[in-house]
Amino acid sequence: MATLGQKPVIHTVLKRKAYVSNEKMKKGTWHIMVPMTRDDALKEIRGNQVTFQDCFIADFLIVLTFPLLTIPEIPGSLPISSPRGSQLMVSWDACVVASVVLVTDMETFQTNDSFRTWTRIRVPPGSLSDAERQSVADVIISRDGVFFLTNGVLYQKSFRGFLKLGRILNLPDGGITGISSRKWCWVKYLSKAKERRSNFAVWTENEVYLEYILLKFARLVTTTELKNILNLSVTATLTIHSVEYTGHPLEIAVFLSYCTICTVTKKIFLVIYNEDTKQWVSQDFTLDAPIDSVFVPHFVFSALPGLILWNKHSIYYCYHNFTFTGILQTHAGHGNLSMLSNDSIIHEVFIDYYGNILIKMENNVIFYSKINTRDVVKLHLWTNNTTRAFVLLSTSGYTYFLYALDNGTIQIQDYPLSLETRSVAFTTKDKCPYMAFHNNVARVFYFLDKGETLTLWTQIIYPENTGLYVVVESYGPKILEESHDISFEAAFGHCTKTLTITFYQNVDYEGLYDYFEMQHNNTGLVMVQFRPSEYSKTCPIAQKVFQIAVGCDDKKFIAVKGFSKKGCHHHDFSYVIEKSYLRHQPSKNLKVRYIWKKYGCPLRLDFTEKFQPVIQLFDDNGYVKDVGANFIVWEIHGRDDYSFNNTMAQSGCLHEAQTWKSMIELNKHLPLEEVWGPENYIHCFSYAMGKPGDLNQPYEIINSSNGNHIFWPLGHSGMYVFRVKILDPNYSFCNLTAMFAIETFGLIPSPSVYLVAAFLFVLMLLFFTILVLSYFRYMRIYRQYIYKPLHNPQRKHKKN
User: Fold this and answer.
1) Strand 737-745 with 603-606, pairing
2) How far apart are CA 29 and CA 34, in angstroms?
3) pLDDT over 60 at 749, yes or no
4) pTM of the entire structure?
5) Which of 538, 561, 394 shows the shortest CA–CA distance to 60?
6) Which residues, listed in sequence order, are joined to residue 217 by a DSSP beta bridge?
7) In terms of domains, do 611 and 732 share one?
8) What is the pLDDT of residues 544-555, one digit of tens each?
């Protein structure tokens, strides 16, 4: 195959990256280095179009995550299981479908590779009674461990041991009726709330609790509070029927049982809670049911809320935000599936990301449907009616059967779902109404910042005279505007209809009094889906679902071009700033510690050089573009012995522009980094705002095109640590800042020529004065001793 040109490439699904082999093939094997990332774990192996025995090699999906460990078996531990004769219970990690926990009536098993290998989960002796160990009612696997619900009490099994959860963790000690975790994986999402989203829900008849990371539980709501929210009668009976996570990454659905007499029938209501907005919304959903009936909900993967709900015999569907409802029926009009499966009852309903729905009865009879359709078809029998089985999704995106054998072991078998559905469609003459459904949606998550647009297209090809079209549906806050463009082409009996749609915002944030509130109201998460107006069970793809997050991408940041932490000696040092150079004129000099890890390498400039920062925008994929928006700089330690070469008049101002001095005066109660920003920026290019003032002042706002530069004092060198901030209120929802350091140096300029001449004149005058005075002093001494000998000779006296 290598000789024919085969060479596999690994593509990531979410971030659209590609990794190739940089080495030659060794012993028939290609080696590709792929980085481990949590938010880009889904990958696809693609090869070149090379035939092998007249066949092409199919692309293959894999989930490549950080190593996942299974809880080790401890010798002497005892098995924990469901009641004798009960069906299989399974829980899997929504984002790592290979990580699964299986509970049988004999043992509990755990795997991290779709049961290619597995271990048993057991509990310490004495932690539970024999009856409690054999009474598991539900199970959940989470990053914090495996959770068992037994006799109304929640237990945790982790690497640290086996723990009973109760009042000490803000949970009830008993009376828990159900637990539920997320079914759909959204690696990325936008939440304006500071708290992280919950991992799973726990509920009693009257209370709902949420579990957060590190085993933190919080009560969400009580039925008494829900009565007030829904304006229900105080005397009526309201209980929690079930709790389920929706297809939206931040929403939780609570199903409520409501009755007044409570003897024959009850009503089931639905309310949805948003973990971001903290709001409850009652849905247009009401189901009349017998008082003792139990329904199991499962939300489908779609933008609009949609779910299927089943009891022992029938499947109820609610699609398109609960506007398309009914009971799944066969072509013959049978809605009771038990009648078509030898009176067996529904055991499992499996739904995948492609919209396939498998309904498995306890005797392993399987029915098939597709989301947004109203009929169901019986598939071929795949296994005998006594084997306990479960349908799961493998890491490659394919379905497989999981069998629990009587000897206490596990067995798996691939299930060709696509072939089975095509085989049944061939016998029923079911045809897809369209021939192709395409789009250019390359991601499941898009970020949209201020001033940005997102343009996508979707296309449907169908036979003439069928009148199909593409439906665009969105769910979430009404913060986006849309523009549509439709093109149509008909040829050779087929029609091609292409819809191009652009998502954008049209909001001006400049000069707003409530800037932050306006930003908050115009950010959020919008779910969008493209789907054909009609389709059937035989259509390969039913819809395309993706998110548009409007707000700040926390992976976005700015940096100043030319600055890094390389190319200089890595060390911290201290220096002193002269008090006269500081903005607030303190009484003492300021000693500053330069932290290299924080500030990076300083750029050394001659203080005769002007400097204009070039701001660059980056995200988690690297460099994006140069920033052309307005920005400001300030020295973080308070230095103001620098200025700008452009004046306000030279910059085109019609009134006095904002300056650091004026903004500090207006916001004395705020720290320096908060006195001026996009929230209070007002431009100076209009007569309608501001006062004329002195336009010969320095213009302290910079952008890439206005030619404004920073210049330095010539009388001294210094170290400057600047912070830069994007000032344009219409540029980004993020508070984009960066730091850079500049060290100025150079020769101190000579003083004035006149001053030097005067100084030299005084110095020479002093010299000659001293010289003249010395001369006269010397001459005086000389004259005195030229006429007077230094020593008088002593005369000798004669003696008589």
Assistant:
1) parallel
2) 16
3) no
4) 0.85
5) 394
6) 211
7) yes
8) 999 999 999 888
